[in-house]
């Protein structure tokens, strides 16, 4: 009886091994599951803030160490409910609707492989609409924000990689306060 039992086990082991050898090679992991260094350069093509003239950044971009790790995959900008939400750069609306009870607008930026997202937003645009920089796409919803005060979460992605949305804005748009002229040193005065 024991000989038959081990014989069957041996047969199953051999069959399992043969299946393992003849199985197709595993498919590569999708890029969004593989935390690799990708192109993080972003052209400063933005021409407007999503909300306000120079909103307060309540929470900045904190890239996660791993794909599913902790972090903040965008920036939170202070904005009272009902504030207009504007397109940062030219593009086409790829989504305007609700996700997990929050209004979301996504825009694929013209001439790039970048996509921006804004939430919570009551959209006034529809999927497929072309938007210009500064064009109103909706208003800030009074609820659904993850901030302690009302805010807009603004995100930026290239494919499945999250990037810092503030990198879309040129330096002159990020400056706070008035410009200051500095003296030119070592130049004699007339």
From TrEMBL:
InterPro entries: Cell_wall_metabolism_enzyme, Dup_hybrid_motif, M23ase_b-sheet_dom
Record key words, sorted: Hydrolase, Signal
Gene3D superfamilies: Glucose Permease (Domain IIA)
Any GO MF annotation of the entry: hydrolase activity
Name recorded for this polypeptide: M23 family metallopeptidase
CDD domains: M23_peptidase
First-tier enzyme category under EC: hydrolase
Pfam families: Peptidase_M23
Entries under SUPFAM superfamilies matching the protein: Duplicated hybrid motif
Domain M23ase beta-sheet core: 71-165
Domain of life, per lineage: Bacteria
Enzyme Commission (EC) number: 3.4.-.-
Residues spanning the signal sequence: 1-25
